[in-house]
Structures are given as structure tokens and as C-alpha cells.
Design goal:
Radius of gyration of chain A: 24 Å
Oligomer: heterotrimer
CATH architecture of the largest domain in chain C: Orthogonal Bundle
Shape of chain A: elongated
Number of strands of chain A: 21
Order of helices and strands of chain C: HEEHHHHHHHHHHHHH
Number of helices of chain A: 8
Chains: A alpha+beta (359), B mainly alpha (287), C mainly alpha (314)
Strand order of the largest sheet of chain C: 1-2
Radius of gyration of chain C: 27 Å
CATH topology of the largest domain in chain C: MetI-like fold
Structural class of chain A: alpha+beta
Largest interface: B-C, 98 and 93 residues
Strand content of chain A: 25-35%
Strand order of the largest sheet of chain A: 6-7-8-3-9-10
Structural class of chain C: mainly alpha
Shape of chain C: globular
Largest sheet of chain C: 2 strands, antiparallel
């Protein structure tokens, strides 16, 4: 019902192409997150779905209807903005009721819907207040309420949590997840924060430079990133990407060490050609005594997080590896350490940057 | 990822129609607004008979330069002298305003002192006060001192300040970061030195804007010169044009030439300094 | 602790305020504003009070003023010209100000789009403001002269039968009104500033919420620019009640034809500089002042209910 499809969607600002041909299908009731670095086009894409930006090529369909030329108010969407965009001269009640009143709903119905929504978001005692008299979190909930009250086909969220402080952000994240379950509605969520993306999404769409890099469930995107970009973007701290050369049964890293890896088979489907990249997540590396293990180096930065640490280790060849270790760690800046690598879950990327396989 | 090369670029017909209608309408409005200017210009180049011809021509044929030239040889309308008067009047007022109003605006906008808000409040009141209720005693005062018939009553008050320009300048002064002045104070600079050497250069553009506004305001000023000046040779152009037209109502061609001559300097000035004008207005409008 | 100095319990640490610099700034502030304060006193507030005083005298310049109390006001009451000019002025204000605001608002909304020609349009629409009032009035007289002016020609071709603007007493006032509508530049730019101040995402939220285009205009855009409406309204009223230059060019000092363009300010001018009746002129001025003051206060009083104040916590 509330499915959204994009076909061949492109957008240009003058001669600059900002959205370079996107095909995407979002199923009904799915919570899809658009994630990517600044300038990747995720907000632009969202706004094109909302009708706030023109589509230069391609079509957008919502619930089976072609809405590419339709005005924003007729598309059956509702949007929650990063800066809340509440009407400052109206009370929260009026903010929520505005769209319904213009649409001509009877007063009793409007009141019912507004109060139900207010109860769902726990903002009932804010209804008589103006936006200026509310905190950021309260305004955000009213903004969400304004979207809910319209009972749209699709909810659009444009980085709604970016302006909130950290603890509030976590709380609002769980509220949004809860709302998604309660309302069973299609939601498209834009964020630059991959933690939000990973925790909220049914599926993640990773965007970069106006293109879709990968679409998949959070687990897929994390464990089997489609290319080097996704590998480096998803996961914090970022995956270690090491250039290497493949030989029969082993990888020779540019750093020096040779890692045995039976998966690399000159005759099998995983036959590598040309230079490759090995991707190792920081938790796949472990500390060893100096001189032992596949790598060695000096600790240049140690971030202690309480339940573990993230160590940045400069190897001899002027590359820095990131290692995540749990528990108490005695390594300090300046210490020389050795590192062992566990190749389970490692990814191998071909010369074109795409994933060849993951162990 | 499929890219359909044959896909057409979307340009909604509705959008094209809207744009043409919009620009068409706007151009029509522009024509309406420019009509008086246009008519003034073409009438200046006709003689009286042609102005009243039936049907009236929308473009002068022939273009009578002598109609305009006649303007400069009339004894009862000494335009060149009056032009000089206007320049002198507008220029002096503009300079006076820039100086005096920047003193007061600096005080209101950058300095903290007891009573500042009160005095500024009075300034805003003065802004809203109809000039009608103050001009009479002022005139009587100047008359008692024997200075009517000169430009002194018209220019002198501006050496003390003017509510509107102080208000406008203050908006700009408010934008000067306090750190700049504090740093100078720590260095031991006197307040006057701070004003002259630190803050004023920051608001240079604002001073130019205010100067421009003062020039336009004074160039168009009518009532003041009307009540204070008596000798035709002293009149600024606005007053000269009025006296000519009211006594020689039938000489339309010359009146139009006179009007053109009065309006043209300001139009040219505006076209050359547009952006500054617009900045000045938007800053004051946000009250 | 052997090192601790004895301190009186509860003594707060006094802040080290740099008294000298604070005082220096305060003194400078006062001195810098002194010329203006003098100006305010000499040219605004003292004359204001004096006008009220002169209004109660008979003062013909030659000879000292003679106290006559409220006789000037009594004379006003029976002076037909006073009522005529008052009626003309009020009619003029009541008609021209709302129309002007509406037109300026409309123009501002049209100009709010960023198109390639925006700059050009803005320039053209602002140009009339620069025309000196005298020149503009004279040109308008020609424009409206039947037989010579294009306006009547255009109206004729469109099928209307236009009046003789300058000689028909019923139409002459409209000449003034139309003339006053021409320089819309200032009001338009003020409105434009207000429109551009509305945050873009509020505008977009309204786009998504409003089924019809005019909903957004009426419920969201207009309420958010009510401060500008208030500003233009007050300025417009103050200015229109004092209209002089255009009226004297078009109608002379007698408000021809048939006193239909006699404005209140012209009456004052006549009393002061033709009949040299200073006391009477002052009395006239005081009445106008009080009327404008009352009206302005009334507007401000009602303003609270319809103007959106940013930064106010109610």
C-alpha cells in the first residue's frame, strides 16, 4: 500500500548532476534509512520524494500512484524536519490540527486525532503551548505528532535527531522505533549517523555522490559491504583496509606479512586477479607480544572507553591499524605491540573495489 | 542500475505556463510603473502643441531638442543655479548627517550608559512624530534670529542629528563585535579614538548608504525650502520646479523638461548604487 | 590550617569590576549622544510643547503673541475649511493606506520568487520612490489630463469612460490617491524582507500540510509578517495624514477644484504663511497631532492580538 518506488531518478543543479540515476523499491511498512556522508544526496532524494525538489528524469511512485508531478500536499506524505519547522505563531494543538482543518475534517474528528496522537507521544500537556516555550525534544515530538496526525502513506524524516543532545537522541531513537511498530507505516529516515541507521533500519540504503552504493539489511551491510566505500563507511571504528596481492592460498599484504588463506584458490570462483584489498574489522585483530603475530607496531593513540579500548597502532610501514579490544588493556601510547589477525569475517575486495567474498 | 538513455527531461507543461504568465504579468506591471517616467521623457522632447495633439504620439516625432534646451534660458526658471543649490543642499546635509548620526548611533549601538534606552526610546518617538507639530515654533525661532531666507535653518539641525538616520545607522553599529572595542580599550585608546579609528571603518558601507539616503531625501525635500527661502535664485530644484509650474501652468513641455532634469540625477544615482539602497532598506525594515 | 588567613564568615568575594573603564564608557556614551539630545530637545520636544502654547495665543508675527485661551479651537469648530480638509485628509488616508499595503504585499509576494529577472523587477518597482514629489505630481497631472494624458486614452480604449480627473471635484481626490500608490518601493521591500525572513523549512512544512496554495498564504505566511504590516500601517498613516507636496502641486493652496484636494496640512500652511495667523495654525497642528497619536495608540493596542511577536514568551 504505502510502497515507494523510484525509477531512473536523476536530478541536476544546472550542469551538476547530484542524483545520478537511482532505482529503489521501498516496501510497505518498511523503515528504510538513507545514510551517507555529507553531500551524498540523501536529503535531496528525500525531498524529491516529498515533492519539495523537482525530478529531472525518472519517476516516483507512492502507493502505486505516479506522484512525480504532484504537489507535496497531494502525495500522501508527511515530513519531520531537522529543525522541527513548527509554525511558531500557533500552539502545539494548532500545529497538529492545521493540516486536518485545511482538509475540512469535522471538528470532533480533528480533536480526537490530535488527542490520540498527543497521548501516543506523551505531549498532551504541551498542547496549549507555543513552540518557543518548549525544549528541543518537546518540539521534536510535536513535529512528529504533526506528521502522525495526517495519517500519511509514507513518513519522511530528514535528520530529525541531529539537533538533539546525545541522551535525548537515544531516547527519541527508541521512540521512533516504537512508533514504527505501533503505526505499522512506511518510513524513510535520513541520517549521517550510522549508529542510528544500523539500529533503526529494516533496510539501509548507503548513498555516495548521488548513487546508491548498497541496499540491504543492516547485518548484510555490516558483514558483507558491497564495496570499499561501504566497508569504510559502515562500522565504527572503521574497517581496516589493507592493500594486498593474492597468491595461491595466501595473501601477501603490502605491509609485508603473508597471511595464509585457503579460500584464495587459483581455480575456484574466488580467483583473484590484480591487486586486492583486505578488509579487517578492528575486532578481528588481537594484541600479542611485540614481535609476535602477523603485524607489529607502536601504539600512537589509545582511546579508553570503559568497557574496552580502541588502539591505533602504527605499523612499521607508516600505516595505522585500528584495533578494538575488550576488557582491561595495559597498552599505552608508545608501547610496541604485535597483532594477530583472525580472518573469519574478513572481506576481500577486488581491483574494482567491489566485494569478492567474505570469509 | 538502469539508465534509460532515451528518457525525456521532465518539464511539466504546467510549469512552463506558470512561468510565462508570471513574467508576462510582471513585465506588464513594470510598464505601468515606468509609464510616468516614459511620458515625462517623451513630453520633454515635444512642444506644447504636440503634447496636446490628437491623437497623442507615443514617441516624439520629431525629437525636439530645442524644447529641452529652452529650459536653460528661462529667467523665471534658473535651473542651472537651482541645480547647484540642490547639490550644495543635499551634499552638505549628507555630510552633516554622516558625522552627527554616527556619533549618536555609536552611542546607542555600542556603548552602555545609564539612560541610553530612555533617550533611544525618545528617538523612536521623534521618528513617529508628525513634523507638522514641530515646524511652527522652529520657524518662528529662526525668524527671530533673522536667518530665514538662508539655507541655515535647513541644514543646521542635521549637524546635531536626525532620528531616521540615527535609527538606520544604529542597526549597522549593532553589528560591530564588542571585542573589537574592548581590545582597543585595553590598549588605552580614548573613546573618541575608538569611534574614529576602529568602529567607523567597520561601518564604512553603512555610512555610504546613509549618505545616499540623505542625498535622495534632501534632493526631494520641498516643505522646508518652501517656508524658509524667498529668492528664486536660492531655490533648490524641487522648489524651483514648483514655482515655475504653478505660475506657468500651460507650459507643459518646459515643465516636463524641468521634471526630467529634477528626477534624472536621482535615477542615475540609484542605478549606480542599487545594492546599497536595498541593503539600507532591508536592515531598517527588520524592526 | 596555619596558613589560612582569617576571613569573616559569609563574606562574598567581591567581583573585581573595572570601575574606571565602566565609568569612562558611560561618560563617553553620554557625550557622544549629547549633540543629538540637544537636537531632540531644541528641534523636537521643545517645539512640540511650544506649539501647544502658541495654539492658545493670537500671534501674527508683527507684534507679540496675545493669550486667548481656547478661542482658536472655537474658531476651528466653525471654520468650514477645517471640516472639509479634515474630511478630505481622512478619506485620503483611509482609502490610500490599505490599498497601498495590499498592493505592496502583492508585489512582495510576486517578487519573492528568485528568478533571473528578479533584480530587474526590483529596480523598476523601486524607481518611483526616487522621483521627487514635485516632479512626480506634475507628471501625473499631465498623465491624467484628458486629451494629453495616456491614462484616459488607455481607459477609453478599454471601454471605460474616464472622468476629467483634474477638474471634476469628485475625481480629483483620486488623482492624489493614485499618485500616492505609485511609489510602492519602500513598503514592498519591507514586506519582502519579512517574507525572506520566514525560515525555509517552515515554508516547506506548510507546503506539505496545505492542500491549497492560498491556505499557506493566509494561515502561515501572512501571520508571520504581521510585524511588517504593522510597521507599514503606522508609517503609512502618519505620512498620509500629513500629505502636503503632492496636494499643493495638484490643487494649489485652495485645493482646487472646489476644495476637493484641500488637505489639512495645506490649511495649516495657508494659515501660517498666507494669513500669518500663527496661533490658529498651531491650534490646527495640535489637533492633527492628537488625532494621529490617538490612532497610532489604538493600532498598537489592537496590535497585540493580531501581530506575531518573535522572541516574546507569552
Amino acid at each position: 500500500m504505502g510502497a515507494v518506488t523510484l525509477e531512473g531518478v536523476r536530478k541536476l543543479f544546472g550542469t551538476l548532476e547530484v542524483i545520478k540515476g537511482i532505482d529503489l523499491t521501498i516496501a510497505d511498512r518498511e523503515l528504510v534509512v538513507f545514510v551517507g556522508p555529507s553531500g551524498c544526496g540523501k536529503s535531496t532524494l528525500l525531498r524529491m520524494i516529498a515533492g519539495l525538489e523537482d525530478v529531472d528524469y525518472g519517476t516516483i511512485t507512492i502507493a502505486g500512484r505516479d506522484v512525480t508531478e504532484a504537489a507535496p500536499a497531494t502525495r500522501g506524505v508527511a515530513m519531520v524536519f531537522q529543525n522541527y519547522a513548527l509554525y511558531p505563531h500557533m500552539t502545539a494543538y494548532d500545529n497538529l490540527a492545521y493540516g486536518l482543518r485545511r482538509a475540512g475534517l469535522p471538528r470532533a474528528d480533528i480533536d480526537q486525532r490530535v488527542r490520540d496522537t498527543a497521548r501516543m507521544l506523551q505531549i498532551t500537556d504541551l498542547l496549549a503551548r507555543r513552540p518557543k516555550a518548549m525544549s528541543g525534544g518537546q518540539r521534536q515530538r510535536v513535529a512528529i505528532g504533526r506528521a502522525i496526525v495526517r495519517q500519511p502513506q509514507v513518513f519522511l524524516f530528514d535528520e530529525p535527531l541531529s539537533n538533539l543532545d546525545a541522551s535525548l537522541r537515544v531516547e527519541m531513537r527508541s521512540q521512533i522505533a516504537r512508533l514504527h511498530r505501533e503505526l505499522a507505516a512506511t518510513m524513510i529516515f535520513v541520517t549521517h549517523d550510522q549508529v542510528e541507521a544500523m539500529t533503526l533500519a529494516d533496510r539501509i540504503v548507503v548513498l555516495n555522490g548521488g548513487r546508491v552504493e548498497q541496499v540491504g539489511r543492516p547485518r548484510e551491510v555490516y558483514h558483507a559491504p558491497a564495496n570499499l566505500f561501504v566497508a569504510g563507511f559502515i562500522g565504527s571504528p572503521a574497517m581496516n583496509l589493507l592493500p594486498a596481492r593474492a597468491e595461491a592460498g595466501a595473501l601477501v599484504l603490502a605491509l609485508g606479512p603473508r597471511l595464509d588463506w585457503p579460500r584464495i584458490d587459483q581455480n575456484g570462483p574466488a580467483r583473484p586477479q590484480g591487486p586486492v584489498t583486505l578488509g579487517l574489522r578492528p575486532d578481528r585483530l588481537a594484541l600479542a607480544a611485540p614481535g609476535q603475530g602477523a603485524f607489529g607496531g607502536e601504539v600512537v593513540l589509545a582511546e579508553h572507553l570503559g568497557d574496552g579500548s580502541v588502539l591505533h597502532i602504527r605499523t612499521d610501514a607508516a600505516t595505522t591499524l585500528t584495533v578494538k579490544v575488550t576488557g582491561d588493556v595495559v597498552a599505552r601510547v608508545g608501547d610496541k605491540v604485535g597483532l594477530t589477525a583472525d580472518l573469519r569475517g574478513a572481506c576481500l575486495f577486488g581491483p574494482d573495489g567491489n566485494l569478492m567474498f567474505t570469509a | 542500475m538502469t539508465v534509460d538513455i532515451a528518457a525525456k527531461r521532465r518539464t511539466a507543461p504546467r510549469r512552463i505556463w506558470q512561468t510565462t504568465l508570471y513574467h508576462g504579468g510582471m513585465l506588464l506591471i513594470c510598464c505601468i510603473f515606468l509609464l510616468p517616467f516614459y511620458w515625462m521623457a517623451i513630453s520633454a522632447f515635444k512642444n506644447n502643441a504636440e503634447i496636446f495633439a490628437n491623437p497623442v504620439a507615443w514617441f516624439p516625432d520629431p525629437i525636439r531638442w530645442e524644447s529641452v534646451g529652452a529650459l536653460f534660458s528661462r529667467d523665471d526658471f534658473p535651473v542651472l543655479q537651482q541645480f547647484v543649490n540642490s547639490c550644495f543642499y543635499a551634499g552638505t546635509v549628507a555630510l552633516a548627517v554622516c558625522f552627527s548620526c554616527s556619533l549618536a548611533a555609536y552611542s546607542f549601538g555600542c556603548l552602555r550608559w545609564r539612560g541610553r534606552n530612555l533617550v533611544f526610546g525618545l528617538t523612536v518617538c521623534a521618528l513617529l512624530l508628525p513634523g507638522i507639530v514641530t515646524f511652527l515654533p522652529v520657524y518662528l525661532g529662526w525668524s527671530a534670529v533673522g536667518l530665514t531666507g538662508t539655507y541655515v535653518p535647513l541644514i543646521a539641525p542635521f549637524f546635531l542629528g536626525d532620528a531616521f538616520f540615527i535609527f538606520m545607522l544604529r542597526q549597522f553599529f549593532l553589528g560591530v563585535p564588542r571585542e573589537l572595542m574592548d581590545a582597543a580599550r585595553l590598549d588605552g585608546a580614548s573613546e573618541f579614538r575608538i569611534w574614529w579609528q576602529i568602529v567607523l571603518p567597520q561601518v564604512r558601507t553603512a555610512l555610504v548608504i546613509v549618505g545616499l539616503f540623505a542625498i535622495v531625501y534632501t534632493w526631494n525635500e520641498f516643505f522646508g525650502p518652501l517656508i524658509y527661502l524667498q529668492d528664486r535664485e536660492d531655490f533648490p530644484l524641487s522648489l524651483g520646479l514648483f514655482t515655475f509650474q504653478s505660475t506657468r501652468a500651460r507650459e507643459w513641455s518646459l515643465s516636463m523638461s524641468g521634471a526630467l532634469f529634477t528626477a534624472l540625477p536621482m535615477v542615475i544615482l540609484f542605478l549606480l548604487t542599487q545594492r546599497l539602497f536595498q541593503r539600507g532598506l532591508t536592515t531598517t525594515g527588520l524592526k | 590550617m596555619p596558613d589560612a588567613k582569617p576571613r569573616t564568615a559569609g563574606a562574598p568575594a567581591s567581583p573585581r569590576r573595572n570601575r574606571r573603564s565602566g565609568r569612562g564608557e558611560a561618560r563617553a556614551g553620554f557625550l557622544f549622544a549629547l549633540p543629538w539630545m540637544l537636537g531632540l530637545a531644541i528641534f523636537t520636544f521643545i517645539p512640540l510643547i511650544l506649539t501647544f502654547y502658541i495654539a492658545q495665543t493670537k500671534f501674527q508675527i508683527v507684534g507679540p503673541p496675545k493669550w486667548i485661551g481656547l478661542q482658536n479651537y472655537e474658531a476651528m469648530w466653525t471654520d468650514g475649511a477645517v471640516w472639509t480638509s479634515a474630511r478630505n485628509t481622512i478619506t485620503f488616508a483611509v482609502i490610500s493606506v490599505p490599498i497601498k499595503l495590499a498592493l505592496a504585499l502583492g508585489l512582495a509576494l510576486l517578487l519573492h520568487r528568485a528568478t533571473a529577472l528578479s533584480g530587474f523587477y526590483r529596480t523598476v518597482l523601486y524607481l518611483p520612490f526616487l522621483m521627487p514629489a514635485v516632479a512626480g505630481s506634475i507628471v501625473f497631472m499631465l498623465l491624467l489630463t484628458p486629451g494629453a494624458g495616456p491614462i484616459n486614452i488607455i481607459l477609453d480604449t478599454l471601454g471605460f469612460s474616464p472622468p476629467d480627473w483634474l477638474r471634476d471635484p469628485n475625481a480629483a481626490l483620486w488623482t492624489l490617491i493614485i499618485l500616492s500608490l505609485w511609489p510602492l518601493g519602500v513598503e514592498t521591500i519591507v514586506f519582502l524582507g519579512g517574507l525572506q525572513n520566514i525560515p525555509k523549512d517552515i515554508s516547506e512544512a506548510a507546503d506539505i500540510d496545505s492542500p491549497r496554495g492560498w491556505h499557506k498564504l493566509w494561515w502561515i505566511t501572512l501571520p508571520l509578517i504581521t510585524p511588517m504590516i504593522l510597521f507599514n500601517l503606522v508609517i503609512g498613516i502618519i505620512y498620509s495624514f500629513q500629505i502636503f507636496t503632492q496636494a499643493i502641486v495638484i490643487g494649489g493652496t485652495t485645493g482646487q477644484p472646489a476644495e476637493s484636494t484641500l488637505m489639512y496640512m495645506i490649511l495649516i500652511y495657508r494659515a501660517a504663511f498666507r494669513y500669518f495667523n500663527m496661533g490658529y495654525a498651531a491650534a490646527l497642528a495640535t489637533v492633527l497631532f492628537l488625532a494621529v497619536l490617538l490612532l497610532t495608540l489604538l493600532i498598537f493596542r489592537t496590535a497585540r492580538s493580531w501581530v506575531y511577536y518573535e522572541g516574546d514568551s507569552r
